[in-house]
Amino acid sequence: MIPCPLTTFIMSYALARGMLAAGLAVTAAMTLGMIATIGGIALAAAFARDRFMGLLARTESWRHHAGLALEVGSSVLVLVFGLWMMLSSLSSRSRHYFHEKALQSGQVSARMLLDIRCHLASIGEREHRIDPHFHLRPQPVANPPRAHRL
């Protein structure tokens, strides 16, 4: 048998704090709660089996239609969310590419570009918000990381 991870954590914490009795009490309470919950569900299923089977027979077509609607709806939501993420990523990358090219060609100064981006962010256009990972100029690293040898 594999012990419950939460029970293992509770007992480890209780032992580390020197509160063995409290750890055992919490573990016993959790065990009694699980016994009551699982036993109650099993008893309810055994006593209500005939009623439940009648309910399932009466609602078969409705459950089929509801299941189909949930399957199609969730598939469409996953597809729309994926497309939205892909398009927003492409939009962000093309905007960063434009900013880099404008800076390299000298058509716009770094200060002007920052002012434009701040203005767009302040008027609430979420797709033009300032990205903290986009740097206008490469910054020199003061203390470059060293490779560690094992």
Provide the succession of SSEs.
HHHHH
**Largest sheet at a glance?**
none
Compute the number of strand runs. Answer: 0
| Helix count, DSSP H or I runs of 4 or more residues | 5
Oligomer: single chain
Unreliable spans are 125-129
Structural features, described:
There is one protein chain. With 150 residues, the protein is mainly alpha-helical. It has a domain at 1-46. It contains five helices and no strands. Helix 1 (5-16) runs antiparallel to helix 2. The radius of gyration is 30 Å and the shape is flat. Mean pLDDT is 78; it is low at 125-129.
Briefly summarize what is shown:
This protein has five helices and no strands. With 150 residues, it is mainly α.
